[in-house]
Amino acid sequence: MKSNLMKLANPCIFDINPYQPGKPVSECQREYGLSQFVKLASNENPFGPSPKVIQAIQEALPHIALYPDSHGFELRKALSEKYDVAIDNLMIGNGSEEILRMLLQAFIVPGQEVIFGQYSFMGYEILAKSVGAQVTKVQMPRWKMDFNEILKAISPKTKMILLANPNNPTGTYVNDEELKSFLTRLPSNVLVVCDEAYYEYIHKADYPQTHGWIAEFPNLIVTRTFSKGYGLAGLRVGYAMAHEEIIALVNRIRQPFNVNTLAQVAALSALKDQEHLEYCIKNNEINRDKLCAGLTDMGISYIPSEANFLMIHVKTDGFALHETLLKMGIIIRPLRYYQLQYYVRVSIGLEEENNCFLNALEKIGLREKVL
Q: In this predicted model, what pLDDT tens digit does every residue of 298-310 receive, in sequence order?
């Protein structure tokens, strides 16, 4: 029996290219036959989760036959106390990406417009197009979001703006004065999602503490994650802070039990171990500075970053470099999705991992190519 399943699909998905994550180590081992790989592709925390998190997960294992708390009360309560935000202004998700998807699903009607920067997280385009949104990418001069460009781009169809701060893949940020000025000029019927996946890594005095702004700006939504600074990428835990009406609306479409028991236990335990978080952040800064110094010594430029990765100008084809490094046991991220042929993004790893990357660049002759 002949069938044409393509005709059954939602037409909007034909304009979507599947998300290409950083290659997992196991896939590279199968493909290249190497036993060891250095993964610097997905902005993971190389120090891993707190030992207290591992212990809490082990203690929770006997209870996994029971469904998790569907509303994540204990975790939301801990977040409420940490950020001085009412518990009704909080929700949790299976990673902050699930929250972004739910926000788009709850507020976007097909044909309405979603705006984000040309060098923003590539998942934004997939998520927006999956709900039939019209996507507008604004220019990012100096590698950071330009709010004047956004304001010029707003049309009667505009419903939501997605803003990564710090931005991925550039590592740049917008400060509190810039962001607050923008929010005061923005029409109140346009939602702004501040995606702060790398919130824990930035300690600039002028970085906006947006969780304290949601009463002033009811159209502001703040999303964060436990995947990066807390080292829980494999468990998928994110959260949002917003006006209680936004939270209530999104909860109407949130799947029951969307964050599993072990993820909730791990996130709650991670919040309690701020000493481990501070250790990870401090050593990320140390290793980032050393990696920057090594690149500078080779004559290779990069975009100064406030996160746990660097966008590097390699002055050679970035995808070809990515393929060459894979054969040497190193995984990085090419940026051809952004039409940035001569750039790559590299996560900040352990010192020995960063040195392995630098030595590989030296070995393949990048120093000579840029001098």
A: 999 999 999 999 9
